[in-house]
Design a protein that fits this description.
One of its GO terms (molecular function) is 4-alpha-glucanotransferase activity. This is 4-alpha-glucanotransferase. It contains 21 helices and 23 strands. By secondary structure, it is an alpha/beta fold. Among the domains are: 59 residues, no CATH class; 71 residues, Immunoglobulin-like, CATH 2.60.40; 183 residues, no CATH class. The protein has an eight-stranded parallel beta sheet with strand order 18-15-12-9-8-23-22-19. Strands 3-7-6-4-5 form a five-stranded mixed beta sheet, covered by helices on one side. A four-stranded antiparallel beta sheet has the order 14-13-16-17. A hairpin with a 5-residue loop joins strand 4 and strand 5. Helix 7 crosses helix 9. The longest helix is centred in the middle third of the chain and has 31 residues.
């Protein structure tokens, strides 16, 4: 390998050598390195290119003067704060906190700021320049602190919001159904509802309904606004018809907007002022999409959010921009109200929001903040046992250098948006805080590479926003995760996930008492089989029908393995393998309830004993992903004896579970 190219790749954070899912050593070739470097914005076609790219990285990570520092310095309380560049020992500086109070100090012998006692955001004035300073607590908000002397063994439900049902909902779950669930769950002794992502999607392309491929993570999906519908029978359907639901709900929003009172207009204007340019950009994007169609078809001048063409369009179509701001205002108010209903009903956490790993490259966030994004790179995964060719997920994300260069503004804004009206946050693919598999646009996933991210700063910012919002943080750490990274997550107070199907050693399932005490125990996830479905082999049926088995797997072999697993799990549960479904469901609920986990989550599909899972990874139209509706209304759930028996099995076990350590 070219030595200069290798130096550039390492400086850019590209992982040249790594171990795959089978612990086999892998190494990138020069062509792959150059492709990923180009996607990161670093030319490597000649020695001169490499030299210039190295110099650019050096300026970013080791600036010579304070004037060249990035906008944000990130540190931690009660320890000296490292600076981006060298400053003479004894140099005076001033910190100004968010209340306007000043604190003077001098650069210490290690070239650091003196320790700061209080977490928060500060202005740092040094050598005639001003930068922002984020000082994080040592750890994220934890369940013990939220318990405030009350019960520490908390429990909750995993909820696919679109699947909830109430009378007159028009065919999709919404904030009113979620609010009712929050109240009923709180009164039943639960503390949390972990919901599917509520990110903004594409209202003019209702067929693009995956909550994990959003237009932006900085705005909400107005389809979840609670609307009353009595003239449509779509609320009785088993699957969400997104085209019909979208048409009906946007028409209702138009009617509500047209009927706004002057007082409501003033409140909307206040919301817009408070939300600032982030909201305005999203609403401009929606108005342009309404007029011109998908972003990739727009004229080039409209693809620049800061162009005169966009400004002129927005002025000429100001009322449409205002309408989309109204839609955001409505759903933001309703989500906050749901959280209040949860807390008023006795929940300690309330809503746990979900943040997708990336955004659509032709969506609102990539359009409005391109300087922070990856641009010509896509997020995915390398080849593994499940996908021999790897995966390209069709989403993009933050650029590692863009995060630093723009003061982590987009990342902080994303955290704040997701934590609006929430008491917790689940971060999808938490490993992405440390490294992501990035693939050049149009290339095969095999032509991608792991790229390192500014992990320490990201973890600190999460901890800071966690404390500011009094929100627990959960990291989706399933699959291949470096052991050292999992330890750093634990040190940061981010809870992992202990999923029933993965808590096992070879042929035996883990007893409840041996579950990790720093993870959320749960029966399943949206991507995995339900308890009833696993017992009946519904996940195997789907994989066999869609030819999704591995090269060395046969239907007969997989069904035989499942038979043995059923016996093993039944033994762990203390039931007979041929016990009826109700017995299995109660046993699963009791099992996670008895774990030492600080929080356990029972999926609604398992509470109701459903056989089908919400999403089947690796499929598009072959499986009704993100469309399945629950068979009972929220109120009916809590009036059904079987359902309540399962809920009591979990909560009774929680009452007897020892406090976590």
């Amino acid at each position: 390998m070219n030595h200069a190219l290798k130096s550039l790749a390492e400086a850019a954070g590209i992982v040249i050598e790594w171990q795959d899912s089978q612990d086999r050593p892998q190494q990138l070739d020069d062509a792959t390195i150059k492709g990923v470097l180009a996607g990161l914005g670093y030319a490597a076609g000649s020695p001169a290119d490499i030299k210039a790219s190295l110099a650019a990285i050096e300026r970013l990570h080791a600036p010579e003067t304070v004037a060249d520092w990035p906008p944000l310095v990130v540190g931690e309380i009660e320890q000296g704060i490292e600076l981006p560049g060298t400053v003479a020992v004894g140099t005076d500086y001033t910190l100004i906190d968010e209340q306007g109070r000043s604190l003077s100090g001098q650069i210490d012998a290690q070239g650091r700021l003196e320790s700061v006692a209080e977490p928060g955001y500060y202005r740092l004035q040094i050598e005639g320049k001003t930068r922002r300073l984020a000082v994080a607590p040592h750890r994220c908000m934890d369940v013990t602190t939220l318990a405030e002397g009350g019960r520490q063994a908390m429990s909750g439900l995993g909820v696919q919001l679109y699947g909830l049902r109430r009378r007159g909902d028009g065919g999709i779950g919404d904030c009113e159904a979620l609010g009712r669930l929050a109240e009923r769950a709180g009164r039943a002794g639960l503390d949390a509802l972990a919901i599917s992502p509520v990110h903004a999607l594409f209202p003019h392309q209702p067929e693009r309904f995956s909550p994990y491929s959003p237009s932006t993570r900085l705005a909400f999906n107005p389809l979840y606004s609670a609307l009353n519908n009595t003239a449509d029978d779509t609320d009785a359907s088993a699957l969400v018809d997104y085209e019909a639901v979208s048409r009906m709900r946007w028409q209702a929003l138009e009617r509500d907007f047209a009927a706004l009172s002057e007082a409501d207009r003033q409140a909307l204007n206040a919301f817009r002022r408070e939300s600032g340019e982030t909201l305005e950009n999203h609403c401009r994007f929606e108005a342009i999409s309404e007029a011109l169609g998908p972003m990739h078809t727009w004229p080039s001048d409209m693809q620049d959010a800061k162009s005169e063409a966009v400004a002129s369009f927005s002025q000429a179509h100001g009322e449409r921009v205002t309408f989309y701001a109204f839609a955001q205002w409505q759903v933001a108010l309703e989500l906050a109200f749901v959280q209040q209903r949860a807390i008023d009903a006795g929940q300690r956490i309330g809503l746990i929001a979900d943040i997708a790993v990336g955004v659509d490259p032709h969506g609102s966030q990539a359009w409005s903040r391109p300087e922070e994004m990856l641009g010509k790179l896509r997020i995915g995964s390398p080849p593994d046992d499940f996908n021999a060719n790897g995966q390209e997920w069709g989403v993009t994300g933050f650029s590692p250098q863009g995060l630093i260069e723009y003061g982590f503004d987009g990342f902080i804004a994303t955290l704040r948006a997701c934590l609006h009206g929430a008491g917790g946050l689940r971060i999808d693919h938490i490993m992405g805080l440390s490294r992501l598999w990035l693939i050049p646009e149009g290339a095969s996933p095999t032509e991608g590479a792991y790229v390192r991210y500014p992990e320490r700063s990201l973890l600190r910012l999460i901890a800071l926003e966690s404390w500011r919002h009094r929100a627990v943080i959960i990291g989706e750490d399933l699959g291949t995760v470096e052991p050292e990274f999992r330890e750093r997550l634990d040190q940061s107070g981010i809870l992992g996930m202990g999923v029933l199907w993965f808590e096992r050693e070879e042929t035996e399932f883990t007893p409840a008492s041996d579950y990790p005490a720093r993870a959320v125990a749960m029966t399943s996830t949206h991507d995995l089989p339900t308890v009833a479905g696993w017992r009946l082999g519904r996940d195997l049926d789907w994989r066999i029908e869609l030819d999704m088995l591995g090269e060395d797997e046969t239907p007969e072999q997989q069904r035989e393995v499942r038979k043995h697993d059923i016996v093993a799990l039944a033994e762990t549960f203390g039931i007979k393998p041929d016990a009826d479904c109700d017995t299995w469901l109660e046993a699963a609920a009791r099992h996670i309830g008895a774990t030492p986990s600080p929080l356990v989550l029972l999926q609604l599909e398992d509470l109701l004993g459903l056989e089908e899972q919400p999403n089947l990874p690796g499929t598009l139209d072959e499986h009704p992903n993100w469309r399945r509706r629950l068979p009972l209304t929220v109120d009916e759930m809590f009036e059904t004896s079987d359902v309540m028996a399962r809920l009591r099995a979990m909560t009774t076990a929680r009452a007897g579970a020892g406090p976590h350590e």
